[in-house]
User: Fold these one by one.
Assistant:
Number 1:
Amino acid sequence: MFEYFPGNYVWNLGVVATLNSGGLIDEVDRACRPIRDLAAQGSDVGTAEFMASWAAVAEDLAAQAAAEEKAGHRRSAGQKYRRATNYLAQAERMQRAHAPDRNVVYRRCLELQQKVFDLIDPATTRVAVPFEGAHLPAYFTNASTGGTPAPCIILWNGLDSTKEHMYASGFAGELAARGISTLMVDCPGSGEALRLHGLTARVSTEDWAAACVDHLEARGDVSRIGLVGWSLGGYYAPRAAAFERRLALCVAWGANHDWGAVQKRRLEREGENPVPHYWDHVLWVWGESDVDTFIDKAAAVNLDGVVERITVPFLVVHGENDRQIPLRYAHRSYEQAVNSPRRELRVFTAAEGGAEHIGLDHLSHVSVFIADWVADVFKAGRDA
């Protein structure tokens, strides 16, 4: 993995995620160079400075985009707004849970993201998925044409990503090129659902899977529906597919088979954390006030006895050098999914790239493989 900040895994992960989601090396270097010395003090120190430096680059880009927009250069403006959103969303992800002005920054991300849709991506729109008297904020990329419904993937994020990160990854674009729509959802405990609506994570993910399927079935432009979850979504998605029978396929993009055990490892300082201020972050996501209570709850975030219930095609994708989630969990999910009619395990190696957590070191390599697998499964189902 490219390591701009030697020895600081968490900050480096943010850099490679940004670069592999459309960031430009010069702009990322402009954001990182002023804080390079701070990175040597650990991932938790200097995150406010990280925010300030990356936001400065993002806002400079946004100002350029506004000038391009005024001049009528919609494509140039949209491309700059897209990168500005990417940089600001990554910097926001690195902050303490209740850092001052965090929600102000996040609202700015939403504003910049909408500019992208308005200027260069009219196929993607903001939607709201009704859920338990509230709603799950989401983006929908529509690949249907000529009034013919298209298959659709529900894409779920993990512990610290947002629907803006999912959009920046380009995965929805890859699916659209294959005639597949995408619903990118901020699940409870993530993104806008957590930040602006206070919805926290839970073990029973089939609840919000049902809400997503209900929403898509009511649209009229969606045919079959699959579910993909990355990072902690590698628990969320298989759990949902085991109980929500309307799903046609499932992908665990990072095999979070026993996330509760991973938390105990992190207490013992084994493995890497995904974000700075880690325990502050997980308590916020799960709506808990202390670590002991959280650890007790997290024990139930486990797919033993669950993946056996999956009866649709199931793909498990993992990096051989994932420093957050042990590779053995990928094998466990695959081995236990005995009732899937088409199960597959794909381990990405360091030699080819995509070997880090959810393949962030070579994200396009992994996402294209998943998009092809999804397209193949939908085609096989259509032709059957």
Note: The two ends are 41 Å apart (CA to CA).
Number 2:
Amino acid sequence: MLADLHCHSLKSDGQLTPSDLVDRAAEKGVTMLALTDHDTLNGIDEARQQAIKHQMEIISGIEFSSVWNGVGIHIVGLGFDESHPVMQAAVKRQEECRYERAVTIAQKLEKQGIEGIWEKAVEIANGAQIGRPHFAQALIEMEKVSNMAQAFKKYLGAGKAGDVKTLWPEMSEVVGWIRDSGGVAVIAHPDKYKMTVTKLKLLFKAFKDAGGNSIEVTTGGMDASFSKRMAQLCEEFDFMGSQGSDFHGPRPWSELGKFVPMAKTVKPVWSHWQ
């Protein structure tokens, strides 16, 4: 079995439709998949229907944005009841936060003299949540910049006009949403937070105290030595381990099913629902 429990479609900030993503995952040998789009469940039904022809198991998934001690932390939810009222209310709240942020970004860019940026971003998003990548692509198509890097450097990166902060919920609240909906809460890509081991332990303790019980031990691009350390911390905190590519699109460093193998000493998160 090859499980990839962290990936994204164009329903959030990925490049493939849920159906195309499932087809690609099957080509890469994935047999269990969780589509974890940011703060939305809109792609799961399509992914589940497409997975039938591949005999692939689809696990309900989502990646929520949250904060802990002022630091942005992403929490993946797995194996929850998608129709649960708590989950439905949580998704609605997060989607509203993302929409309000997008509107503010557009207003700020309009003040920079980029007229029509909202309409172009909406067109590019094509029904998906509107985020900074869509604004970046809009800036390229409007010939304001020549590439993504330039879009962020000039308009969307830290300290620029399009750098709009969102008041995300506390991590403990997000963990509660997932648990109340019957799922497992997982700290996503712990290597991305650039924390010392001491601070990671503080994060993990707060996460456990909130009811969290799993961390991503291996993700796309994670160093083998860091993955080994996460396996050790799983044992220390009595966490289950999860894994996933964090796939957004065809890139050499983040392919579906591609990551350092999870240590055999770690109890896999899928044992929770199997």
Note: The mean pLDDT is 95.
Number 3:
Amino acid sequence: MFYDILALIGGLLLPLAFAPFDYPILAVIGLFLLFASWLNVSPGRAFLRGYLFGLGQFGLGVSWVYVSMHDYGGASPLEAAALTFVFTAFLALYPALAGWLSRRFFIGSRIYQSLIVFPAVWILGEWVRGWFLTGFPWLQVGYSQIDTPLAAYGPVLGVYGIGWVVAFVAGGVLAAFHSARKPRTLIAVAIVLVLGMGRVLSGVSWTQPAGEPFKVTLLQGNVPQDMKWQPEFQRETLQMYTEMTRKSWGSRLVVWPETAIPAFYHQVKETFLFDLETEAAARGTDLLIGVPFYDQTQDRYFNAVVALGETPGIYFKRHLVPFGEYLPLRPVLGFILDILEIPLSDFASGNGGQAALVAAGHPLAASICYEDIFGQESLAVLPQAAYLVNVTNDAWFGDSIAPHQHVQMARMRALETGRYMLRATNTGITAIISPKGKIDVAAPLFQRTQVAGTITPIEGSTPYARWGDWPVVVVLVTGLSFAAWRRRRILQTDSSAE
């Protein structure tokens, strides 16, 4: 029972390692408590303790789901609480299965389990969570280290590589508790080397400038979510963004947030957008504007970003938000649409072979909303893209921890690719993020404002931009496959001896 409670406490500590709390050491402590609870127990008990950890981790860390469903989705307090609990209960299965697998298929000393098995199984569990059923990579431990020396692993191994280092350190501390003096010394040396490598990598520049710096302006309209799609508010919204844009004519590029235009593209293309594009061209300014796009020939609509300027283009969002933009398993989960009142909740996804948009004279990697939380997908138009642009509408999260967590993940994309990230949001956090993953300038939440700054186009590839997540995944799978083979050989030897 003591270790059951310890696992739950570890799960509650883990979200505090992330923004807005920012206590990254708690990621190590949380995993240390979880791994300690998995030592020398049955697979069933490890499953239970992993589940308790997951309830704490996601119950606190994604509590903003309630805000989205109740405050903005139209669900009653009881309905929102029930749906949030179901979501949390499902996510908790990932650490639960990690615990079960680590005890079911791998045997060895406490040191072997702590240093090799537990960290590898944990990170592979995060990786599966990042793509299974469209993926939900929220609260992956690597993000918590964006402001620590371990962040230098990002351009090489990505968020999963950073996460493995955190898990290895947690497992190493645990292994040291169960070691004699000499092994304990070796473990300490290994931890110091892993941490020290972060310092070494921080001095490496993987990418380089590809042209002259240029000025950009990001607009944060702060349009209330409950008013955004009301027809009588449309003219006021368009006028507000137009006035903000006219104040930014000195910029080479102006970026509007996700679905900033509360109308379909074809409804404003020949009128509002034509006039705005003509005016912007006369000032030498390119525009990137979030707008829903209706394909009348196929009766489908898309979440899109339109480039207006020297090189017109359009990007259709590829990775949709379950329940927010489309409904998975509609025959089973269709009742959820009866609970939630979400406009434009049945988007179609864009194809994966879209050409890069071009703005301010350079190709860019565009993403919409939570597409920026998927590291592998950010690489689709690299290395030709000179910078990253994300437009989003985090108004659905209200004044919760989610906007802070979201921008933390956007920072990781800039770090992994070695490029500037321009992040334009409706209510915040709008920011210009440097290639090192640092915020150069940002707007406060829930203010109508503009964020202006200068960025440099970038060329070249980081190791992560070349290989993505696969090096980490392949190494961990290979290591666990060897460990499983080793377990089988040991069991066969023991059986033969009998």
Note: The chain is about 50% helix and 15% strand.
Number 4:
Amino acid sequence: MSDSNDASSGLSRRKLIGAAGLGALAAGAGAGGGYAVGRQDEPSIAGVPDPDAMPIPFEGVHQAGIVTPAQDRLYFVALDLTTEERGDLISLLEDWTAAARQMTQGNDVGEFGAVSGSPYAPPEDTGEALGLPPSGLTITVGFGRGMFVDAEGKARFGLDGKLPDRLKELPAFSGDELDPALCDGDLAIQACANDPQVAVHAVRNLVRIAFGRASVRYSQMGFGRTSSTSTAQVTARNLFGFKDGTANIKVEDEKDVERFVWVHEDDGPDWLVGGSYLVSRKINMRIEIWDREPLEGQENIIGRTKGSGGPRSGGDEFEKLDFTQKDDRGAPVIDMKSHVRLAHPDFNKGAKLLRRGYNFVDGSDGLGQLSAGLFFLAYQRDPETQFVQIQRSLAGLQKDLLNEYIVHVGSGLFACPPGVGRKGFWGEALFA
């Protein structure tokens, strides 16, 4: 699919490039400077501004990329700190913030960018996003437990007493097959954009900047958002073919956003107020087994119809689920072990999450089957009363019927600091 009439050279590229086939991260020298070379202004199609290509403000009370309407592409990376010097960590966050300010507005990293510097020195910017519009790029960072304490619980980087009480190791859940290489991390970067190359460019440059201070632990590319975070967005489908995230918290739901997403003053610690907790989970889907399940069985497992996304109890996608409705045999129309029932707030002490998940396909698994699934991302005010509560329900004694077709292989929990203003850097209050 392509549009030959695109006024911006980046627009047709965005529609053509898939989630697979992009290069691996390359480490090298580089630093985040304060100025940049411009790339693209007001991208448009036939003179009409293209909203998918426009920039999203970087500065604000909260980090962008949380309640921001979910973009189409994801590049997520977790890193381990390779230094024990407090000054190195602070300078890394300062450099990252400076670079993110530039890239999210469609500019190169550094004073001279990709092509304007000395021919005898490595470019400050890797250059693969030259000519591309900002494409709605947001960059969101999080801090893992390992940034605050080592394996023995000893404080790192002079951050004694700064570890949030809620930044605990997630408990083990029944059915998990977690690979340690796909779990945790001291730092996390979530880059979302409507062009995969723009997202890759952002992560690649932040990794270059981190050289000598942090290294990649694991990364994941995602495509086709599986949750809408705005009422203006159509609900997307996951790789099982079902609409996903119908009941997700939306940015327009101001009361729910305030209640369930942002850390409050009385939650502690002070440096995290206005931030949020991010749970990441890599979930492999047993695609081939699912594809042999009859349609009626698939709908019973999920609790919704596959076509409209409406509940099995009747109505359209946004109809309220009726868990009391019975069929001719007296059995619940929405199965007691269906995914939508076990995940519903009514059965989880009212808990809700803001989900920003993405599909992924990582080639084949070596056994002739697709290595594919969902990279689950969810933001919340309190992981224990939200994600843990819901996941215990799904993995508990009743056993979500969907568990036969999925397996959790990666996991992480990160504290995402609040946003930054025209000055300052991510997590600055943590070091005050």
Note: Residues 5 and 254 are 39 Å apart (CA to CA).
